Give the backbone structure.
Amino acid sequence: LVALGGVSLAQAFGEFPAKVPVPANNPMTPEKIALGKQLYFDPRISLSGTESCDTCHNVASNGTDNLAHSFGVFGRVDVPRNTPTVFNAAFNTVQFWDGRANSLEAQAKGPITNPVEMGMPNGEAVVKRLQQIPGYQKEFAQVFGGKDPITFDNVAAAIATYERTLITPDSPYDRYVKGDKKALNASATAGMGLFKSMGCDTCHAGPMFDNPGTPMGTGFFQKFPLQPTNPQCASYEQKYQFMKDPGRFDVTHNPADKYYYKVPGLRNVALTAPYFHNGSVQTLPEAVRVMAACQLGKSLSDEQVKDVVAFLDSLTGKFPKETLPRLPQTPNTTILMGVPQLEKAAAQNK
Amino acid sequence: LVALGGVSLAQAFGEFPAKVPVPANNPMTPEKIALGKQLYFDPRISLSGTESCDTCHNVASNGTDNLAHSFGVFGRVDVPRNTPTVFNAAFNTVQFWDGRANSLEAQAKGPITNPVEMGMPNGEAVVKRLQQIPGYQKEFAQVFGGKDPITFDNVAAAIATYERTLITPDSPYDRYVKGDKKALNASATAGMGLFKSMGCDTCHAGPMFDNPGTPMGTGFFQKFPLQPTNPQCASYEQKYQFMKDPGRFDVTHNPADKYYYKVPGLRNVALTAPYFHNGSVQTLPEAVRVMAACQLGKSLSDEQVKDVVAFLDSLTGKFPKETLPRLPQTPNTTILMGVPQLEKAAAQNK
Ligand code: HEC
Ligand code: HEC
Ligand code: HEC
Ligand code: HEC
Ligand SMILES: [Ca+2]
Ligand SMILES: [Ca+2]
């Protein structure tokens, strides 16, 4: 297979998609993107008034916070899983490690009302906050129309629309696929060959390295660790405790789904340490060793690890230049005082 | 005095300064501004890895978080004073409510190593974090030169330089001063007249409404409440507990400085609710009533309050269009794991 040669091998994975998938019932418009960006950066949709989507999924960085576990609202330390990047999440066929949301629209409501993330008691409370902000009243009306344009569904639709702009094309790998042979060095092309010949691409397939053509909304799940009895994997398991979390079983309650996870895309994976659903592995070389042992029953040489990592490094794309939104204001007052749940929660935190 | 007429009255306060004051030993350069912006937005200079300057001083908003008291690192609720806006802080002759820093450079080190704000143990720990980030190594060398360009002093110098770009000229008031009579309505011009005739401008003087020409680095301090025995002020004091905080006395330990505060600028004051050093007053009309009673021993009619507020609303300037910085990355690893203080602090928070 390695004999195929670099470029055609790369073509087998495919280059960065020319278009992001958009659901028919939530078309992208410049106004909706702008509104979604404001909401994405607005900490007022969290109970404390301090936690926005951007707090954990930092757009100025790599779309994560590079912590094993993010701190939730009021500094909560019980966020159960590692925070994935929001860059290219638009290409995921399902969202979350366990695939429990089948679209960005369905996903966005999760963290806002999750007590350990943004902590709003319910969607209505979010709507009430936003209704107090004149600029949002106007913008929701312009974007969504209707009598009561500020709804929790519309909040999610706008945020999802903004997220569809957070994509990173034009990685060295993509330039290589397009024919620029100098875009990858010898180590990276060797790593690309190994990635295919070892079988990493049976799971990390396709242009996002996350599935072999699975339709949007369905999800491509695989067991991890797949080979827990492999001695090297067993010692990783002892160290990193991957199997403390039952994975997709939490969603389906089907014992066959125990330890199954959505196969994560690998675009920008060099920037999104630490690794795996529990954020237990600090470095990419170690993550590659874990994958080889636990998914393929293989033990890699240092040289092989270096090469695979060089290939994965070549998947880092170009991040969009973002302007900061301007958040609509509440002149002469603040909506973050006299909020009973906020004051109660802050007092409990003392 | 009101007879002076609108425009000349406004000229008496002065229009938005054409230039921001820059200390001779920290000249502004585009590269230093860019580096300072990255540091300002970088949560990695907090112990938890989640709290940047922007967390409390939100540049996408009004330079504050509109909370009575910000939440510090790990959700701490003991940040003692209300967070002032960072917009136009470059014009303050001293920084902090009690004036304990005499420059932006001196100020910036405060929050980073303040245990209840960003929580870094000391400047060295900040330097160690940044030294692990290759992009910063390069940029500090380019901006500051020398053998060890990453120093805590240089961090502060860069952040201060970025802050000097966060200014908001061209408010309706400024357009009025320049001769555009339609920039203020009748209520705002009446309010401007009252502001002068009542004597608000004895303290809130000059183009930033914070001092009568006090030199940079010195500070213009006044007592608040100045007339605590005025019955209306006494009832506000009972409600809002201003005198729980001894103000500048904390800095000088001189009993004569008890309850003295830096007179805050009033640019964009409409957007920076809640008000006063303890963030106890939710609305601007109420803040105006408090000032009239406690500083001037005056009781205002609803109409007068409305007019003064209309004038203060006219001090809201144009906020700069900001691009998000791109934070330098640490490929294939994260610097936020295995940090003993972080892990200890997170565990204690459980
Ligand atoms: C307190 C931290 C935190 C906040 C705030 C937060 N998230 Fe997340 N996000 C996470 C974590 C943790 C996960 C993974 C949870 C899981 O899979 O069980 C996640 C998952 C996601 C995913 C799925 C990505 C993937 O590859 O599966 C998307 C998309 C996302 N978040 C977007 C958002 C948006 C939009 C907001 C704001 C409305 C937001 N997040 C707020 C921590 C956070
Ligand atoms: C049988 C399926 C399968 C195979 C084969 C496989 N992976 Fe994975 N990979 C997964 C799954 C599932 C996860 C998510 C595991 C988790 O965190 O729970 C994952 C996670 C990863 C991650 C961490 C991603 C992140 O953001 O944390 C990396 C890196 C990775 N794989 C690389 C590889 C490499 C390199 C190979 C080949 C040596 C490989 N994988 C083989 C299924 C597979
Ligand atoms: C946890 C919240 C928090 C964080 C994080 C924070 N600040 Fe502040 N900031 C405050 C508070 C509260 C005050 C007022 C404290 C006082 O006066 O005693 C303040 C005061 C200031 C002032 C003085 C403004 C004035 O008008 O007197 C400036 C300037 C400032 N901060 C800039 C920064 C910078 C730069 C950073 C990051 C290096 C930062 N702040 C981080 C809360 C915060
Ligand atoms: C004797 C001096 C003095 C006079 C006169 C005075 N002020 Fe103030 N003003 C201050 C001081 C000092 C503070 C800060 C008090 C504190 O928060 O501790 C302040 C705070 C304010 C604030 C709140 C600013 C913020 O960001 O929280 C407003 C609004 C204000 N003044 C408006 C007025 C108006 C309107 C008048 C006239 C009715 C007035 N002031 C008269 C000294 C004065
Ligand atoms: Ca990660
Ligand atoms: Ca305030």
Chain A touches chain B through 57 residues (CB under 8 Å).
